[in-house]
Amino acid sequence: MTFSIKGLKIVEKYDSIKFRFNNWRILNMAQLWGGRFTKETDQLVYDFNASISFDKRLFAQDIEGSIAHVVMLEKQGILTCEEKDAIVKGLTSIRSDVEEGKLNISHEYEDIHSFVEANLIDRIGDAGKKLHTGRSRNDQVALDMKLYVRNEVVAVTEELTALLESLLAVMENNLNTYMPGFTHLQKAQPTTLSHHMGAYFEMFKRDVLRMQDVYKRMNYCPLGSGAFAGTTYPLDRAYSASLLGFEGPTLNSMDSVADRDYVIEFLSALSMVMMHLSRFSEEVIIWNSNEYRFVEIDDAFSTGSSIMPQKKNPDIAELVRGKTGRVYGALVSILTTMKGIPLAYNKDMQEDKEVTFDAIDTVKDCLHLFNGMLKTMKFNTNIMETSAMRGFTNATDAADYLVNRGVPFRDAHGIIGQLVLYCIDKGKAIDELSIEELQAISPVFENDVYEAISLKTCVEKRLTIGAPGQKVMEEVIKMNKEFLNSLGQM
């Protein structure tokens, strides 16, 4: 079939009108507002304003919250049973199609909320337009973010628990593994690997307790707060909250949509986790060095050098240490964003998501990889014990030996200082000196000094709770097991 020039122009005009209409339809379905506006949003403004590229991560939470909302609306007589069933069926089908890869979350939509609602209307018609009844995007996004963060608090707690279990295993297996303890990175007094790992157990145990605190404090539902002043619909907010597993509804609708304290608290807790991981990583890096050789990192958690064939680098520990600043940055970012925002909701608060998502991913990855490295790490126990002996870590106990035989502590301190200088000159440990050498510096020394300053004695006579002695360490390990067993569902 052929067309005249006039006919072709008519077809072109028709196609142009159709194209503009389709663009208008997509734009209006892609955003949940527009009736007030007479001009299309500038494309750059639209792109800058849109959040679909990152809030698509909230897809499951948006569906979950919407289902609870419409179930409550039907209970209150705001929707019919048929409307509720149609909406729930439509939302469920959207969720299934996205999860199965049949439906892609397209960037032509402004945010995840408009994606869900537009696709719902496409599937079930006018009933889908009632999804938003009694709800604003403000309380909707507040709910989605709370649901997401709440889930991630649980996920991080699970990773922390796995790390605690690995630490406890090291503690149980190394009650008599002697090593030097340090202050100022200088060898100080003897301890055990069990005691040293117990210090990290306490740190990560506090992290778990902080996660529990975050969960309890945030577990109140903002759904039903509207834009910030509630709604005239007779919503049952307590029922919605119970459907979603919250303790109850939030008590001020203005604060509900303006609150991101739970994000800040979570990021603060995550920053503490990373600080502890970074300290631990620093010690692993030092212990892995040729100068220490306390540990050998498994090949699966190490890399080599492109030019130096002898190298075995502790990359996981170094990356964990490096990524700590990234999580700190997320916390500072949100604190800075929130510090100047008046009530109630402001668009600035959209900035809470990208950095929070990145921080969560970073912490979970770091915990998982660090735990894998720890579980496969070999501890060179003989080298640790030799290091404790050669580092004069029993010098304090040698001074105590003299004090127990009537020597004033200040004099005993000076005598042991001379003894250490002599050992350094001779290249010996205190234990390796003959009784004649010891008595040449102080006649108070007797043959029982060797037993008194052995690493075993130095450690085992420290029996106050929290010290490295085996009996008290066994008590602590028992308490740690009880703590882990007490960790149930939040």
Helix content: 55-70%
N-C termini distance: 71 Å
Look at the helices and sheets and give the structural class.
mainly alpha
Shape: elongated
Mean pLDDT: 90
Report on the biggest sheet.
2 strands, antiparallel
Strand content: under 5%
Strand-and-helix sequence, N→C?
HHHHHHHEEHEHEHHEHHEHHHHHHH
Mind explaining what this structure looks like?
- The protein has 490 residues and is mainly alpha-helical.
- Helices cover 63% and strands 4% of the residues.
- The protein is built from 20 helices and six strands.
- It has helices spanning 5-30, 43-49, 52-55, 59-75, 81-99, 112-124, 137-173, 193-218, 237-243, 253-258, 261-287, 315-338, 352-376, 381-390, 395-403, 409-426, 435-441, 449-452, 455-460, 470-486, and strands spanning 178-183, 186-192, 220-221, 248-249, 295-296, 378-379.
- The strands form three sheets. A two-stranded antiparallel sheet has the order 1-2.
- A hairpin with a 2-residue loop joins strand 1 and strand 2 (186-192).
- Helix 7 (137-173) packs antiparallel against helix 20 (470-486).
- The longest helix has 37 residues, at 137-173.
- Residues 1-27 have low confidence and may be disordered.
